[in-house]
Amino acid sequence: MKQLSAVKYSVLDLASVAQGSTAADTFRNSLDLAQHAETAGYTRYWFAEHHNMASVASSAPPVLIGYVAGGTKTIRVGSGGIMLPNHAPLIVAEQFGTLASLYPGRIDLGLGRAPGSDQVTAMAIRGENMQASYHFPQDVETLQLLFSDENINGQVRANPGEGLDIPIWILGSSTDSAFLAAKMGLPYAFASHFAPAMFLKAIDIYRKNFQPSHHLQNPYVLSCINVVAADTDAEAEHLATSLKQLILGIVTGKRKQLSPPVADMDKVWNIYEKEAVMQMLGYSFIGGPEKIKQEMESFLAKTQVDEVMATSHIFDHQARLHSYQLFAEALKTDNAILC
Q1: What is the pLDDT of residue 128?
Q2: What CA–CA distance (Å, rounded) separates 310 from 279?
Q3: Which of 107, 194, 205, 237 could bridge 100 with an S-S bond, Cβ 3.0-4.6 Å?
Q4: How far apart, in whole angstroms, are the C-alpha atoms of residue 16 and residue 274?
Q5: What secondary structure does DSSP assign to 97-122, as a single string?
């Protein structure tokens, strides 16, 4: 039996740049949101690595993690994730070792294998190392070794990093990642906010194949979801048109900065684009407090996830802060027991 209020809730920040704003504005808003999230009881605040996207400024997560961790006190800060094939494991170990030394007990390291961008940009990042994604399991093991006390006599050592307790998470949007997270006995974070189709199958595979490790004795599932909460359902639906326009840009390849909400999405997309966007937004929670709560109760009863991570692409910063506050309040109230 699991109470609704027992489910942890966290933030995924893609550092979205709104039209008329700059990356500097976005980063200040991220710190402001993190401080509000800390007060509202959110567990962690993650940044995701993306490149060559006009609407996303989180191309350097370690820098942003340090910025937000330095401006907060208790909330965990980390990556959701670092795209490991873009980097040498030693560099990641040193960067996160530095962060964990500065902010002990507060740094998470989520790892993914995708490039975080298009293939042309991936080539610019990886060069001749374009096949690095196939080495992802071995690179995760190398990273674990670099963090371990057992590497004290190794020829290559992470300083700082060695011997530090930095939780590693496996991120995924397919079943491949589920098998890996289960085999390694690591917590599993699924990108259900944009890849809903494989979510239920992936977490079922993860739970059924989980092998306990000294890192984790029981499977732990985090689901990332889209959340747009407002005082009324109608207001939330209006605010969510910014999210829908953002996803439309991904579907059509016409990416741009986060757009202000519109009165009628049917004037923005055609029926085929609408269908594609809504499929990607399968795990989106849009509405007033009561609607959000009811839908979350249903979602948690169905999935039994241990933690939800809300990402909220809302044009107005104050409306975004309010959305996260309403979401936290919805999860703190127990009208139902989840079996």
Answers
A1: 64
A2: 18
A3: 107
A4: 22
A5: HHHHHHSTT-EEEEEE-S-SS-HHHH
Q: Tokens in use for 232?
A: 């009324």
pLDDT digits (tens, 9 = 90+) for 143-158: 999 999 999 999 999 9
Q: Quote the Cα angle for 15-66-305, to 5°.
A: 65
β-bridge partners, 108: 78
Q: How far apart are CA 242 and CA 17, in angstroms?
A: 12
What residues contact 164, with CB distance under 8 A and at least 6 apart?
97, 100, 101, 147
* Element of type H or E holding 70: helix 61-70
Q: How many C-beta neighbours within 10 Å does residue 124 have?
A: 13
Q: Is the pTM of this model over 0.90?
A: yes
For residue 211, count CB atoms less than 10 angstroms from its CB and return exposed for 0-12, middle for 13-18, buried for 19 or more: exposed
Our CA dihedral for 150, 153, 158, 159, rounded to 10 degrees, sits at 110
What are the tokens at 225? 């979801």
DSSP 16: B
Which of 332, 330, 323, 335 has its CA nearest to residue 36? 323
Cα 189 from chain centre: 8
Amino acid (1-letter code) at residue 187: P
Residue 334: closest CA among 42, 5, 2, 1? 5
